[in-house]
Amino acid sequence: MTEIVRMTAIEKHFPGVHALRAARFDLHHGEVHALMGENGAGKSTLMKILSGIYAPDSGSIQVAGAEVSIADPRAAQALGIGIIHQELALMPDLTVAQNIFIGREPRNRWGILDEAQINKDAEAIFATMKVRIDPTAEVRRLTIARQQMVEIAKALSFRSRILIMDEPTAALNENETEELFTIIRRLKSEGVAIVYISHKMNEIRRISDRVTVMRDGAYVGTVGAADTTIETIISMMVGRELDQTVAAIPDLTGAPVALAVRGLRHGRMVRDVSFELRQGEILGFAGLMGAGRTEVARVIFGADPREAGEIEVHGTARDIRSPQDAVAAGIGYLSEDRKQFGLALGIDVRGNIALPSLDRFSDRFLRVDEAGLAQAAARQIQSLGIRTPSDRQEVRLLSGGNQQKVVIAKWLLRDCDILIFDEPTRGIDVGAKAEIYRLLQTLAEAGKAIIVISSELPEILRVSHRIAVMCEGRLTGILPGGPQTSQHEIMRLATRRESEPEEATA
Q1: What is the rounded distance in angstroms from the CA atom of residue 406 to the CA atom of residue 148?
Q2: Longest dimension (CA), the chain
Q3: pLDDT tens digit sequence for 137-176
Q4: What distances in angstroms separate CA 498 from CA 19, 271, 286, 299, 310, one per listed residue?
């Protein structure tokens, strides 16, 4: 294969962070080249330099054998480089076609937008992708998978020959992932070169030709995907052995019930859900996308209205109608979208950790005890091992794993003893995942009652003491965690329809 991109000796600094250290990367025509590494390894930074979002401090970039300077995203687009970010950047109130051609819309001789032409042009792109999407549909009405296809179509509308995909399957289910893989293989067959950034090991072996690993901003090595093992890639990523053992499941028979939910209802997504969570227990919630797992968590936390049912905290009925009520009851919720709902990205680490507890660090005149707050934040940073130059670092500059720890820190500072973790390891690397697993175990051993919602069945089996399985808004069964249960048993309950008989719960 001929080389289309070569990046050599790329350096990049941010305030307090040496993000890239003589980093290098090459890409061939018509290949899928996976770029891997722990959060903070420099993958996204390197690709943002290739796509013109960041300027390198030094180093060289060649595209199709010619040295280039990529000053901004428009310069990258002119070179045929497109990027699809993990957080999609579409405008929900515009149509599919308007999103694809925004800023480049054809107009008639009177200067009026030619809607018919952009719809026709969008249809032509979807035809080459062999995807059926209505170009006149509002983007907000599409599934995430369909929106991803629109992003790809937008990149192809610039005649992109180099396509960068950053965690493209993070929010997709298995069927949607297969659909995306079909598109990727078709683009590859047409000569498009694809950079594929992902933390999902099972995807890398299936979709990529080569794998390049980065660590601490530097190049580690490149291997053929078919010629290596997942264990080798993990070792390259983390530079150490990871503890893969499953913790022993404690006997919590006599432990106090921390949270009791009875007959919980909210529309069609939460239908007569009942369960108990004991002190020191990790209760996993499994199910297919749309099963109602997140909706149950949001109703318990007061983020969505409870239409019926009862919630008891430590044996006392609580009328939780808002997140403030939930926090007052000692319940903390870590949303699946930490950037939108869990963090204030524009403020520093200290401020984020303190947010739910500001009333404890201010007097009746709203004067904040900065010294006390700094000490409390420092304790959380140390105990959770949050990697940050200081507590004054903007949280948006931290890696995904460290951002997740900041969310955990804010609820621990508030001293919540019931914690709901919704997709706690989404978008973070294997090393950070192992740290989160250890932290969950430590919190449970300290007496916290924990709910973990995850779409990854191996994760659910690894961390849970018991596993609650949902299907179409109903709790279809509760299984023991660990080696006593298989992924097959979970999927059997996750696909059981309403008309089937109820399972006995453990």
Answers
A1: 29
A2: 79
A3: 999 888 877 888 898 888 888 889 999 998 888 767 777 7
A4: 51, 11, 17, 21, 22
